[in-house]
Amino acid sequence: VQLVESGGGLVQPGGSLRLSCAAFGFTFSSYDMSWFRQHPGGGRESVATITSSSIGGITYYGNSVKGRFTISRDNAKNTVYLQMDSLKPEDTAVYYCNVPQLSIWGQGTQVTVSS
Asked: How far apart are CA 80 and CA 77, in angstroms?
């Protein structure tokens, strides 16, 4: 069972990035998927969640990213995405993919928003 994140990098304020998380070793479509982030020296913060498709693929967002980030999933590719728009310096963090019901975490991908 494994999650592999990609897509992080350095972007200027106001820019966009799309993170991907590929899942291996479990029935991806049956599980909720989440993105968290961890700021330097801080705890992990919930960013977004998308429920399994069987219950509608409902999305939830943290207040700090609502209206700027979009979570989506492609069950055919066993992949969950996080589209991040209008990025701010305070979005700088390591972003992690998570399966809440299985307590599985990816290795994380660094996002840095700076001019």
From this structure: 9
Q: How far apart are CA 56 and CA 49, in angstroms?
A: 12
Q: Are 81 and 74 in contact, with CB atoms under 8 Å apart?
A: yes
Q: Is the pLDDT of residue 53 over 90?
A: no
- For residue 69, give the nearest of 88, 84, 51 by alpha carbon: 84
Contacts 24+ apart (CB under 8 A), 68-76: 71/33, 71/35, 73/28, 73/33, 75/28, 75/29
Per-residue pLDDT, 40: 86
Residue written as token pair 């609502």: 66
Q: Which residues contact 1 (CB under 8 A, 6 or more apart)?
A: 24, 25, 26, 102, 104
What pLDDT is stored for residue 39 in this prediction? 93
Question: Average pLDDT, stretch 40-54?
Answer: 93
Residue 41 φ then ψ, to 5° = 80, 5
pLDDT tens profile 60-97: 999 999 999 999 999 999 999 999 999 999 999 999 99
